[in-house]
């Protein structure tokens, strides 16, 4: 679900991986992208798998246990994306191209 939901936000060159030892699902972008597009790509799974299910449960008073479990576990699994997004928001200028490595972020200011 995570990989599918992150595909909606970024259709550029993208690879999806699973790290079985740590039970981590992640996507890798091999081309530079604009800062806001990167933020959208990182936060869209959180929105799709957490906020939308919570809204559906509360608006329609649904009693779907699996939907609630997904909505509760996704913020835990996506904590890295949330932390990474905060760092990008605070440190990377607005009109920048961003390229990520496994543990590093590089950016070039376009404006």
Keywords:
111 residues, two-stranded antiparallel ribbon, 4 helices
Fold and architecture overview:
Helix content is 52%, strand content 22%. It starts with a helix and ends with a strand. It has 111 residues and is of the alpha+beta class. The mean pLDDT is 80. The chain has helices spanning 2-7, 35-60, 65-77, 79-91; strands spanning 14-19, 24-29, 33-34, 96-100, 105-109.
Largest sheet: 3 strands, antiparallel
Q: What is the SS-derived class?
A: alpha+beta
Shape category: globular
How many beta-strand runs? 5
What is the chain-wise order of helices and strands? HEEEHHHEE
Strand content: 15-25%
What Rg, in angstroms, do the CA atoms define?
15 Å
Q: How much helicity do the residues have?
A: 40-55%
Termini gap: 36 Å
Give the topology, please.
Elements: H1 2-7, E1 14-19, E2 24-29, E3 33-34, H2 35-60, H3 65-77, H4 79-91, E4 96-100, E5 105-109
Antiparallel strand pairs: 1-2, 3-4, 4-5
Helix pairs in contact: 2-3, 2-4
Short description:
By secondary structure, the protein is α+β, with helices and mostly antiparallel strands. The chain contains four helices and five strands. The protein has helices at residues 2-7, 35-60, 65-77, 79-91; strands at residues 14-19, 24-29, 33-34, 96-100, 105-109.
């Amino acid at each position: 679900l995570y990989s599918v939901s992150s595909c909606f936000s970024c259709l550029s060159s993208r690879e999806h991986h699973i790290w079985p030892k740590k039970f981590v699902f992640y996507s890798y972008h091999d081309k530079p992208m604009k800062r806001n597009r990167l933020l959208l790509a990182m936060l869209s799974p959180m929105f799709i798998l957490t906020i939308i299910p919570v809204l559906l449960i509360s608006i329609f008073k649904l009693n779907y246990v699996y939907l609630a479990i997904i909505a509760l576990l996704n913020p835990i699994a996506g904590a890295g994306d949330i932390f990474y997004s905060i760092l990008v928001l605070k440190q990377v200028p607005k009109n920048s191209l961003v390229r990520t490595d496994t543990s590093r972020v590089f950016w070039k200011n376009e404006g």
